[in-house]
Amino acid sequence: MKIHLSSVFVDDQDKALRFYTDVLGFEKKHDVPLGVDRWLTVVSPEDPDGTELLLEPAGHPAVQPYRAALVKDGIPATSFAVEDVRAEYDRLRALGVRFAQEPVETGAVTTAVLDDTCGNLIQIVHSA
Length: 128
Known about the structure:
The chain contains three helices and eight strands; from the N terminus they run E-H-E-E-E-H-E-H-E-E-E. It has helices at about 15-25, 65-75, 85-95, and strands spanning about 5-10, 25-35, 35-45, 50-55, 80, 100-105, 110-115, 120-125. The strands form two sheets. A four-stranded mixed β-sheet has the order 1-4-3-2, with helices on one face. Strands 5-8-7-6 form a four-stranded mixed β-sheet. It starts with a strand and ends with a strand.
């Protein structure tokens, strides 16, 4: 068994697609109209047939209180692996990305937490 799909709830799918592709560097995989929303996924260009991230509309009534509680407590919605957290932090800051947590080293793990502009905190991580 392996993870095929994961999702993050987003306020605006178009805005999320721009952020996740133009800023974070993912590639669009699927974009299927479903009424007013879409089945919209992105993948890593390093693994185009790997795990997809669904940019899921945040319209369900339970989503807003759930996400607000996570953000208030500083809990990331998901985590992305990077080769160098400090370099990625610097690259993203230069693009105007706001970070809720600057890079922190805890033993063999370095993390930072960014705001995806779509209602979520996202952790970037590298394990030595």
